[in-house]
Amino acid sequence: MSQTAHDYLHERFRNDAATLLDRAASLARGVRMPGPDATLSRRMADACTDVAARIASLPRAGAAGLDALLTLATTLDAVAGTATEAPAVRAVYAGAATRMREVVHAERAASADEAHDGSAEGADVDDDDLDDIDESDDTDDDVDDDDPDTPPEGRDGAGA
User: CA of 75: how far to CAs of 80, 93, 104, 159, in Å?
Assistant: First the structure.
């Protein structure tokens, strides 16, 4: 992820709030749209703003930041469960909790893959390690298997 999970989620919920406020303003001007009315759109925007503010108060990076997002996800589940408002507002909190878990999981999986890829490519190998190669193995000196000019019959000893 090119930005931290914290920054991505914060920006996402700020943008969601702005989109919902734009929708509410359009509906108030008489533009007809399917979905929630202007009042409900504003309440959903308020919930998105609340989520973004909660994210903004957390550590921004590293394992502590990811752990804080998971703790917040649990808190948002509780908010969703106790909210007496419209189902759409509860869905904002429940959806935010779910999205946080997904992003944290993806971030941790990517970090694990990066750590694994680095070790798989021999990141700890240095020039001294290369000097220890056993040069006494001469079982294949007569044929270069990677040489495209070597005819196939010279590679395995069999004719074509």
Answer: 9, 9, 15, 72
Asked if residue 5 lies in contact with residue 60, where contact means CB atoms within 8 angstroms, the answer is: no
Q: Cα(68)–Cα(61) distance, rounded to whole angstroms?
A: 10
pTM for the model stands at 0.69
98 with 46: CB under 8 angstroms?
no
Per-residue pLDDT of the chain (160 residues; tens, 9 = 90+): 468 999 999 999 999 999 999 999 999 999 999 999 999 999 999 999 999 999 999 998 889 999 999 999 999 999 999 877 789 999 999 999 999 999 999 999 988 877 766 544 433 333 343 344 344 444 444 444 444 444 444 444 444 4
What is the C-alpha to C-alpha distance for residues 91 and 72, in angstroms, rounded to an integer? Answer: 16
Given a contact cutoff of 8 angstroms between Cβ atoms, the answer to whether 58 and 65 are in contact is yes
The pair of structure tokens assigned to 53 is: 């503010």
Burial class for 131, CB neighbours closer than 10 Å (0-12, 13-18, 19+): exposed
